[in-house]
Amino acid sequence: MTESSEQQRPAVARRLRTALTRLPHWWPLPVCVLIGTASGLSYGAFAAPQYEATSYAMAVAEGETDPSAALGYAQSYGRLTTSDATLSYAQGAAGEPVRELRSHVTSETSPDSPMIAVTGTSEDRHKAADIANAVIEAVIVSSGHVSKDTGVKLIKFTHAMTPDRPVSPSMPLGTAVGAAAGGLLGGLVLLVRPRRAGWSVSAQVPGPTAEGGNAAQDERELVR
């Protein structure tokens, strides 16, 4: 049984190579498009929708503090939004432990204005707003503890509202993106795969044969 199976392996390999050579050279393109479409459709059908809510805070200079200092402190406080101290203070109102809360919070600052944007992400749209509001409140409280020393304090600019629509791609969009990605991958495969011998056309240059030499000589005599 062992010898027969070993003997059959070369035959199966030859059949497989023969079947692949009979396929058109562009077969990776539709295969990749089909795989990408199926992947995008599966993601849109089974992935849980994600919601995002954003709250804003603004840094304000107090007293005789230079107004330009508010911009620098806004950048610093924006980096502190995902620190352990801030998330530990916000975890009670957010309803999530620090480890999970860290992956659900992002912050952004602007180089032109002293404003901080805190975005909460969750599968529950109400919790997404709670996360954003809890973290922005924690940053504002932390800045208030040192506002007398820095001369800059944070104030809440806008409250995060409960989102109505998810930000995750829908099923049609996910399917379209998957099909496009599959088509791009298939095109790259066609570009980098080795070409068959029949695809390239090489110029045939006649060698210095006797007949060729006589023909060339006859042509020269006719021209004269």
Structure description:
It contains nine helices and four strands; from the N terminus they run H-H-E-H-H-H-E-E-H-H-E-H-H. A hairpin with a 5-residue loop joins strand 2 and strand 3. It is 58% helix and 14% strand. Helix 2 runs antiparallel to helix 8 (171-192) and helix 4 crosses helix 6. The chain is elongated, with a radius of gyration of 34 Å. The protein has 224 residues and is α+β, with helices and mostly antiparallel strands. It has a four-stranded antiparallel sheet.
Structural features:
four-stranded antiparallel beta sheet; elongated; alpha+beta; 224 residues
List strands and helices in order, with pairings.
Blueprint: H1 2-22, H2 28-46, E1 51-61, H3 68-79, H4 84-94, H5 98-102, E2 105-109, E3 115-122, H6 125-145, H7 147-150, E4 152-158, H8 171-192, H9 210-223
Antiparallel strand pairs: 1-3, 1-4, 2-3
Helix pairs in contact: 2-8, 4-6
